[in-house]
Amino acid sequence: MKPIVLSGIRPTGQLHLGNYLGALQKFVKMQQEGKYESYFFIADLHALTTNPDPKVLHENVKNVLAEYIAAGLDPEKSTLFIQSDVREVAELYLLLNMHVGIGELMRTAAFKDKARKQLGITVDNPDDDIEDVARQLIGNNSNKRVNAGLLTYPTLMAVDILIQKADFVPVGKDQEQHLELTRRFARRFNSFYNVDFFKEPQNFNFGGEPVKVPGLDGSGKMGKSEGNCLYLTDEDKVLRKKVMRAVTDAGPTVPNQPMAEPVANLFTILKLVATPDKVQFFTDAYNRCEIRYGDLKKELAEDILAITAPIRERFKEIHSDEEYLRRVVKRGAEQAREHARQTVEEVRRIMGIHPF
Ligand code: ADP
Ligand code: TRP
To answer: How far does the centroid of ligand 2 lie from the alpha carbon of residue 10, in Å?
Structure first.
């Protein structure tokens, strides 16, 4: 039996370079190695926690599916499916929630961040405790609301993983806390019922550290909600323009000067897309105070386009073939459900739900 790999991306917009380098590229590489049984899905139920517009949701699901395939995921080699097609996920989500504490959910970084956004609370340090959020949530003195789906987001993610008994879950750095919770829920379930049932899944990075792709606007990560994305489907001109506008500084004035964050961010992306020789060339130029940021950006844009332009062109073709996309997810759902059904049957039995 091959180890099982599973991962998903929320369909909340077009995929960007961060999604590709942090997640999708790893999915493709793992698929190509042929050593795993792989499941890749579109997390539409997770998207509903923040983006519940029905028309946009449907369009985004189709986009991400076409982007998966355009980037190299092959329905003949991997099971590609839509999360909501696997209805067993909803059932296990209910069952697993009986063993999940609301306190631990409220302490997750992603929840604190998104809940604050929904409540309109701003803080200097996102790690500050959650009393401000908790007070507003429990108190009834505001008409603002954080939906329970957002709070239980980690349960749903754990269910995606545990229901397929995944061994490896390739995700970016920002998802590691959710993965840690998944392991905790699996251990808790096993020890509560005294079974050895759920596996504890691990992130997978081909031996390296998980990458975090920064934005080109000076600080922070590249993200759909940050409005600083280089999209896989950006036309050449658009992408070049975005890269040329990246924030830099006035340039180093003494040799080997430490890099300011915006400049370090450019190098971080360069290292992910360019040859080591090119990275060395620009690093040396910086250290000698001879760097021309314009040249660096031009090279960077071309190296990014070498990755994204072929994906963009394949995307256009695949996106227009609805019949094909329908076939892919229909078959994917059947395969994913088969596995999921077995897991839920077992869980029901373990929990004491069985026929007379
Ligand atoms: P976004 O943050 O843009 O909404 P998602 O949360 O949908 O993206 O992330 C989908 C996948 O892409 C996850 O595995 C996540 O870790 C990865 N990812 C997203 N942004 C980045 C980034 N800037 N760098 C590395 N990986 C990222
Ligand atoms: N939470 C993940 C993200 O924002 C998406 C996701 C949902 C996921 N379920 C998952 C990723 C299961 C890996 C495994 O990117």
So the answer is: 7
